[in-house]
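This part of the workshop introduces the protein records we will be handling. Getting from the letters to the C-alpha cells is the skill we practise here. The record below serves as our worked example for the rest of this section.

…
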Amino acid sequence: MKHWLWIIPIDREATQDLWDFCLKEGVAAMQYEVGVQKKAEHNRALAQQIAVGDQVVAYLNQNRVGGVGTVTRPFFDDPTGYQSSYGYPYGQRIGVDWLATEAPVDIRMLPGVTDKLGATLHFQTIHEIDKESFDRITEAVQITRENPLPKIADLLESIPLDDVACREAEPWAKQIEPITRPFLEYLGRTIKIGMLLRQDIELVFKTKPRQVKK
C-alpha cells in the first residue's frame, strides 16, 4: 500500500467548489487532458500508479488539508459532473472514500510534515508521501473531526456553580476529562504545550470553586 498527496486547488477562483464536488462524488479530480495541459502525460502516469486500497491526502493548497481517504477506484477519465469557471471538467479522477473535516487542517501545526513536503508541491498535482506523514495528517484530521470544544462549552454552561453540585457530579473525572483527553494529548504531541494546557484545565476543575455571590 502506498500513500499519496493529491492537490485539489480550491485557492483558485475557478475551482473554489472542486473539493465540494470531490467529497460529494467520492473522487479526487485533476485537469490534465493530453494535448491541452502541460505535464498531462506526467501527471496521468502518476495517477495510474495509484491502486485501490492506497491512501490519499486531499491537499487544498496554502498549507490546508481537507481530509484523507482510501482509494476505491483506479484512475479513469470522466468529463461529466463538474465544470470550472474556465470550462474545464477536471475529468481525470480516482475514486476515494473520504474522511473529511468541516474546517481544513493547517499542516504547519504538524512539525516535520511540512519539512518533508517542502517546495515540491508546486511542480505537480500528485505526490507520493511516506507513511509517517500520512499517519500524522490522518491523526490531525480525526482530532479536528472530534473537536471537543463545543461540547466543553455546553458542559460548562450546564454545571451549577456551587460546591455540592460540583462534588456530586465530579465534573472533571466523569465529564470533562473524557472529552478533552484525546484533543489535549494530541496537542501535547504536536505543539509541545498541550499537556500544560491539560494540567491547567484539570487544576481549574479540581480546585474548590468560588462561592456564587447571592
Summary: The two ends are 64 Å apart (CA to CA). Residues 148 and 154 are 10 Å apart (CA to CA). Confidence is low (pLDDT under 50) at residues 191-197, 208-214. Helices lie at 18-25, 40-49, 113-117, 131-145, 149-158, 163-169, 171-190, 194-206.
